[in-house]
Amino acid sequence: MLSWTSDDAARVESVRVQLGPRGVKASGGIVAAETSAHPAFSSSYDLVVDDEGVTRRLSLRTTTLSGEHEMALKRDTEGFWLVDDGRGAQRLSYGGAVDVDVALSPLFNTIAVRRLSMSTVDVDLDLPVVYVALPELTVTGETEHYRSVAGQITSTTPRGEVELTVDPEGFVLDYPGLARRR
Questions:
Q1: pLDDT, tens digit (0-9, with 9 covering 90-100), for 87-138
Q2: CA-to-CA dists, residue 36 to 27, 32, 138, angstroms
Q3: Neighbouring-strand partners of residue 62
Q4: 98-123 in b/e burial notation, b at 16+ Cβ within 10 A?
Q5: Residue of 177, 136, 170 whose CA lies nearest to 2
């Protein structure tokens, strides 16, 4: 079990993680108080990452005052994503993305860090990702930049640049401005 709390204590994420060599199965959730950036919400997810470190499946459910929303993402063997938001499914490539990044969750940064062994290998590259915004569950393709030098990991997204602190297994300990593991 891993848990993160936002610096202002307005949000908490808790997740049960099962590890393979590079694969991950995770079942968790985020509970957030209302802020200027988003309404109060709760969100739950189930994630499957294969032993190559490639995200295969993610299902999400979010509850707000206005109701519940569900979404499922699946990556097929041809590299396409099937995105089903309950109003119909779409098959999209998202620039060859093999990673998903869910807003407000440090867990999802862990997937690329582990797959690319960033805590032990120097890396400097752009990664296409499937980005899921919370609580609305909108999906877009984005490019995130990761740089790792001597275990110091920098992540640059459209929302800014941060220095990630990770544990020996590659799980995020501190994501400044977002959350810290407790």
A1: 889 999 999 999 999 999 999 999 999 999 998 999 999 999 999 999 999 9
A2: 28, 12, 19
A3: 43, 69
A4: bbbbbbbbbbbbbbbbbbbebbeeeb
A5: 170
Query: What are the tens digits of pLDDT across the range 1-39?
Result: 999 999 888 999 999 999 987 789 999 999 999 998 899
The single-letter code of the amino acid at 149 is: V
Nearest CA-CA partner of 142 in 74, 105, 94:
94
| Gyration radius (Cα) of the chain, Å | 15
CB 84 within 8 A of CB 97: no
Which residues are within 8 A (CB) of 26 and not within 5 positions of it... i.e. 6 or more apart? 15, 16, 17, 18, 45, 46, 47, 49, 107
Distance CA 137, CA 177 (A): 21
Identify which of 111, 106, 137 has the alpha carbon closest to the alpha carbon of residue 43. 137
Q: How far apart are CA 158 and CA 101, in angstroms?
A: 12
User: What is the pTM assigned to this prediction?
Assistant: 0.94
Nearest Cα residue to 19 out of 44, 53, 60:
53
> Could you tell me the two tokens for 88?
């119909």
10 Å CB burial of residue 160 (0-12, 13-18, 19+) is exposed
Residue 71 in contact with residue 135, Cβ under 8 Å? Answer: no
